Amino acid sequence: MPKETFFNLNEEKQEKVMRAAISQFSMHGFEKGNIGDIAKNAGVAKGSMYQYFENKKELFLYCVQWSSELFIKKYTRFVDLPDKTTNFFDYLYESSKTLFVQMREEKDLVIFLQDVFLGKYKSLMNESIEYMQKISDEYMLQFIRQGKENGYIRKDIDDKLLCLFATAVSYKFKEYALNKARALGEDILDEPFEAFETEYKAMIELMKNGMMG
């Protein structure tokens, strides 16, 4: 976690530092990422960066946390079930389609997180993925419990086992979609949702067969 001095900055300045760091790591990787360049692009002194963070590793890991939390804050409204009568699986499809379009406004952060996800930062992968997985599991469990309440998810299987199944399916789909886009020399958000629609529908059907009540 950052030092208290970082949190003493106003939110706008904090965001400038984080976006500058994410841009630097995305372009140059972790090992070649330069604290001085991050400071320059954020409009702060290089020495100040070490007043905010213990080292470059701490800064990188907080980039993962900050990006993940920003997505939750900005996009949760697109995936929350509106009421108990909503079909869980139909809503999962429709909300994901909407979310795919909305996330283009944060393309740089999406690219950074997808690189973390695909193992670009190998030396820090375990610690980075651990945090992302924790957030993903918490949100998936919330979805599963809502689905059980409205009768669209079977109640005879433990929540955590259902979460494990759903997460594994969605993880492999993300990996497939990201690699498919990269094979074409693109990032996933450069492609329209329709480029993955057939496969996404198939994934939803697979989840239905394993989870539907």
TrEMBL record:
GO terms under biological process: regulation of DNA-templated transcription
Pfam families from the UniProt entry: TetR_N
PROSITE patterns (alphabetical): HTH_TETR_2
Record's keyword annotation contains Mitochondrion: no
Keywords tagged on the record: DNA-binding
Keyword DNA-binding: yes
HTH tetR-type domain boundaries: 11-71
Domain of life: Bacteria
Ranges of the DNA-binding region feature: 34-53
GO molecular function: DNA binding
Protein name (database record): Putative HTH-type transcriptional regulator YvdT
Organism: Clostridium homopropionicum DSM 5847
Lineage start: Bacteria, Bacillati, Bacillota, Clostridia, Eubacteriales
